[in-house]
């Protein structure tokens, strides 16, 4: 198999993703903790922010798919990165001017979240659907594996640096760095070239509606894909509150308030959030490289179901550990070790779930519908995430983190068992 790095366009996409995704980690990490800092750990405001941002992304992702199939995908990518750079730099200046007013700062952050996710909803379908247009079909799993490895490397580097930067500098300084890096990413994406053929039909409200309708009807014909998306949307509903709400709240309320937390002389409390992400990334890199040497298996669906079940068991056992060692026995450091080991196992299992899923979708989709299908799969898979993160904020505020973990982990386990019984997913490829 020819290596994808012999393809200039893939290299440019890879490098652009390297820069933009690292700084996106900086931004997400900083905003999540800053909201908790300026609101005295208000889980409801944090959950509302996550819900609003997620809902915005879900709603506008449909239009992103339509634009991706009609216009030059590379141009969409670099325009979006230029817009993100401008948005973050302007917002940083606004926060500097109104930093003493918490309400105005929250308005700025919510506005950034909404506009930023509109831009992201345009960027994502274009960046995903361009790969089959520049690579051979047999190279797609290799490309997706390398992108997974890239994402994991970014998590190690990005989260580690983000924890250090957030602890050592003003948030607006971090925003200026993020904005500058988006500019670099946009410049590299300007050199991506592929055989783009513009559609003769002009884009109107009617044609947009017809394109969206066509996309849904097309997805409906793929029975295995429909079944898989149903499983994914439920998995994300139960997983997002753990990754988005629980971890940062746990760090702020359990780790930061414990004067003897593990490695306190080396790591700030926020750095433990980074350590968990690094744990996931280490094994994601290892098994991403393993998968990069293989083509998509004929039994991809069965493998996805098996590893999803393993993943749900890891989450359940980790949740039980939190209750046993933190709630009942005040053994925070024992749980921190368990959580890091769990992160390593999660990274391994997610590699065997996410890479075959993304490769299968690209393989079974007609090239002229890649953008629409990508946006629809994003819409469906993320459709309940805004609701789940919003509800999670109230669950934490009015009950406890333990209740949230038990609900989410049991929900994940039930969904994985349902997937094992679904035969249509076996025919995914």
How would you describe what is shown here?
By secondary structure, this protein is mainly alpha-helical. 81% of the residues lie in helices and 0% in strands. It has helices spanning 8-38, 43-70, 73-97, 102-129, 131-134, 140-168, 171-189, 205-220, 223-255, 269-292, 300-328, 332-364, 370-382, 385-398, 401-420. Helix 1 (8-38) runs antiparallel to helix 7 (171-189). The longest helix has 33 residues, at 223-255.
Task: Explain the layout of strands and helices.
Elements: H1 8-38, H2 43-70, H3 73-97, H4 102-129, H5 131-134, H6 140-168, H7 171-189, H8 205-220, H9 223-255, H10 269-292, H11 300-328, H12 332-364, H13 370-382, H14 385-398, H15 401-420
Helix pairs in contact: 1-4, 1-6, 1-7, 2-4, 2-13, 2-14, 3-4, 3-7, 4-13, 6-10, 6-12, 9-10, 9-13, 9-14, 9-15, 10-12, 11-12, 11-15
Keywords:
429 residues, mainly alpha, 81% helix, globular
What can be said about this structure in brief?
With 429 residues, this protein is an all-alpha fold.
Shape estimate:
globular
Q: Total helix count?
A: 15
Which structural class should the secondary elements be placed in?
mainly alpha
**Portion of residues in helices?**
over 70%
What's the pLDDT, averaged over the residues?
82
Unreliable stretches covering 5 or more consecutive residues: none
Order of helices and strands: HHHHHHHHHHHHHHH
Distance between the termini: 20 Å
C-alpha Rg (nearest Å): 21 Å
Q: What is the count of β-strands?
A: 0
Strand content: under 5%
| Biggest pleated sheet | none
